[in-house]
UniProtKB/TrEMBL annotation:
<dbReference type="InterPro" id="IPR036629">
    <property type="entry name" value="YjbJ_sf"/>
</dbReference>
<dbReference type="Pfam" id="PF05532">
    <property type="entry name" value="CsbD"/>
</dbReference>
<feature type="compositionally biased region" description="Polar residues">
    <location>
        <begin position="9"/>
        <end position="20"/>
    </location>
</feature>
<feature type="compositionally biased region" description="Basic and acidic residues">
    <location>
        <begin position="35"/>
        <end position="56"/>
    </location>
</feature>
<comment type="similarity">
    <text>Belongs to the UPF0337 (CsbD) family.</text>
</comment>
<protein>
    <submittedName>
        <fullName>CsbD family protein</fullName>
    </submittedName>
</protein>
<feature type="domain" description="CsbD-like">
    <location>
        <begin position="5"/>
        <end position="54"/>
    </location>
</feature>
<feature type="region of interest" description="Disordered">
    <location>
        <begin position="1"/>
        <end position="56"/>
    </location>
</feature>
<dbReference type="InterPro" id="IPR008462">
    <property type="entry name" value="CsbD"/>
</dbReference>
Length: 56
């Protein structure tokens, strides 16, 4: 896994978690949902990168 991809995935996960929390605190279900989806996207990408590393 390249360091750049790892940082991008971690940043996406962090941003998603932040949006989700902000949506929950402000009572905005749309923001909460978008944040959760963004975090899941980062998790999936990270898992894909780890899978690529194990198959090499």
């Amino acid at each position: 896994m390249s360091v750049v991809d790892k940082v991008k995935n971690t940043l996406q996960r962090f941003t998603g978690q932040s949006k989700r929390t902000a949506g929950r605190v402000s009572g905005d279900p749309g923001l909460e949902t978008r944040g959760a989806a963004e975090k899941i996207g980062g998790d999936v990408r990270q898992a894909g990168e780890k899978l690529k590393d194990t198959t090499r």
